[in-house]
Each structure stands twice: as C-alpha cells, then as structure tokens.
TrEMBL record:
Protein known as: DUF5931 domain-containing protein
Region (Disordered): 239-272
Keyword Membrane included in the entry's annotation: yes
InterPro entries: DUF5931, HATPase_C_sf, HATPase_dom, Sensor_HK_TwoCompSys, Sig_transdc_His_kin_sub3_dim/P
Chain ranges passing through the membrane: 12-30, 36-54, 66-85, 105-129, 141-159
Boundaries of every DUF5931 domain copy: 1-170
Top-rank lineage group of the source organism: Bacteria
Amino acid sequence: MSVELPLWRALTGYRILTLVYALCLVGLSYQKYEHPLGAAAYMGALTVWMVLTWRRTTSAERCTRHFLLADLGFAVGGILLTPLVDTHARIMDGAPTLPSIWTAGAVLGFAIKGGWRWAAVASSAVAVANLVERQELARDTVHNVVLVWVASVAIGYVVEVARASERTLARALQIEAATRERERLARDIHDSVLQVLAMVQRRGAAIGGEAAELGRMAGEQEVALRTLVAGGLVSPPRAAAATVPHPAGEGAADDAVAAAPAAPAAPVPEPAGDGPCDVRALLAPFAGAGVTFSEPGAPVELPAAAAAELAAAVSAALDNVRVHAGDGARAWILVEDEPRAVIVTVRDDGPGIPEGRLADAEREGRLGVALSIRGRLRDLGGAAEWVSVPGQGTEVELTVPKGTAPEGGRRGKARA
C-alpha cells in the first residue's frame, strides 16, 4: 500500500471538518460583519467548491496541479476578501479570516503532492495574503503564519522521505524476487545439467581417445556454467575441469565437497495433484542396497510443492553421499513427523567433511549444499543443518514447517 494514501485520506477529512468550522464561525458572527451578504456569498461559493471537488484530495492522481492552484486561489481570495466584508476594528482585534483554518488544507495539499518546496511556495503565498489582510505585523498573525509555514514544510519533507523509502523498498523487493528466481534456476541446473556434464567428463576420461577430448570440453563447460550460476564471484581454475574425484578412502575427505558430482540420481517422484502429499511416498523410492529408509507408521503430510522440494533436497544429499563417501558407504533416511514440522535426517558412514569445507565449496561455485539443499529448505521457511566429524560420517537434518509451500506453485519461487 502506498505510504501517501493515508495522508490523502486525512487531508480530505481535514478539509471537510475545517469547512464546517469556518461556516460555524461565519454564522456565529454574521451580524458583526460590515457586509454580511458578501461573507455569506463567499462561504456559499467555498461550500459549492468543496462539494464539487472533495474527491480530488483522495489520491495523488486526482489531485492535479491545476486543482491545487485553484484551491489555493480560493483560500488566498477569501483572506484578501475579509477586509472588504468585515470591520477594521474586528480585524485589528484578531477576528479570523473568512476561510479561517480551512486555508491550511490548501497548503497541505501542495506539501503532499509536491514535497517541501511546493509547500514553502504555497505557505509563503498564504503568509503574504495574511499580512496584507491585517496590514501590520501583529504577533498573532506572525505566529499563525510561521506555524503554517513550518508545519507544511515539515510534512512535505516527510512525504519526500517516505516516497524515497517506498522506492527503495520496491527496488529491494524486485532484487529479492530476481535473486530467488535465479537461485531456483541454479538449483535446477545443478540437479540436471551440471551433473550430466560432470558424468560426460569422467566417462570421456575413462574411455580415452576422442571421448577424452569430448570429456575435457564438457568439463570446461561445467566450470563455466557453475561459475555463471554462482553469480560470477569465483573463477575456478581451468585445470579443475579435468579433475577426477578421488576414490573414497584415506585423503578423500579433503576434496569431498569440491569433487565433481556423480551421475544424476533417479528422478524425484512428482506428487499427484496440489493437495496434501505423503512425504513417505516420495522418499521411499530412494531406498536400495546402500540406503535404508525408516518411516512412521502414519502418513506424513505436507503441501505437494513443499513435499516435492523436500524430496529434491534429500536426493541432493544422497548424491553427495554417493560422490564423497564412496561406493561402499551406506546411508540412512529417517522421517520424523513432529507437531509443527517434518524432519528428515540423511546420515552416512563416510569419511565426513572437514570443518570449513562447506563454506569453501560454496565460494568455489559448488552449489549442491548452498542451493540444492540449503536454498530449498530456506525457501520453505525451514532449515538444513550439518553435523560431520572426519572419519565418522555426516548427518544432514532437514526441517520443513508444516503448512508451507513455495509461492507460485510446484518448484516455483519460494516464500522467504
């Protein structure tokens, strides 16, 4: 909602209330005017003007510059008309002008529409009219003039600051939306294209001949694409494209996270429909000879989109086990249905991850942990936590609050 809208509504209410107040003042002092019919004629014209134009101050689009000038003209005209319809004695005694405090509404319109500069010009015009009407620098006149000038300029400045803040917020929201969409695309690329390129690289190096050249080119494209989706912050060395992962065993843990991905895992099953989905049905296909799957006896339900993202994160965690823990490593998947969240734990008996290696891998453009796992859980309002001790395996705990789903549908832009 625009920060200006409440100000326009308040201005509309102010103008209506001050018109009623000005009519009451003129009505109570009607017999004291030197020319009461002139005062009544002006107040009648002002009332008609308000009836015809009260909606003009309900929004910035309706409140045009021409309207503001005409409104200010009614206010200044009423001030200058006061000496012609009222007695000199009453004016010297401090009697109010015909429009009275309604005049401030015209000045505030300039402040909200154009900021403090417009407010300064409009309030200066009103100040000159008041001094002409009083014909002297009386204390109460100067007090009222300064009060209107300061108040209108201050409100105009606040409006300008609010507009700048609103533009900054809108820009920040656009950047956040673009960043989240980029992260979503990067996750999809990591889970498909990058893994296929890595597989071609390794297979080509193993076959040799022309296939080795094809593998080398695939490795170069993998590095270039990985750098692109990582935001161009890192330029991995060219030689990294030809690196073949070390076999699991002594010394393999040091390169665990930075090693090339394994062949793509089996596709994550898609939930049927958009209603609640049993997470167990999406995770059960991951069970196999090296993976043990443990589940509750009752359905574990999440929104379909959230369940699909959780299954994709589990798939990425198992890919890391296959690559970094070795072919002989075992993995365990445990599903827990808590009152407020679903917790999935993926544990392996591999060599573990050295401290600080996850952060180093993210800086080097390795996106498996940063986007495929942590990014998905963050977008669902959840979290991913790693517990790893070198030589004792790695445990990944994935937590998804119940009732959450990515915005925009399945695998779409997620809610922060």
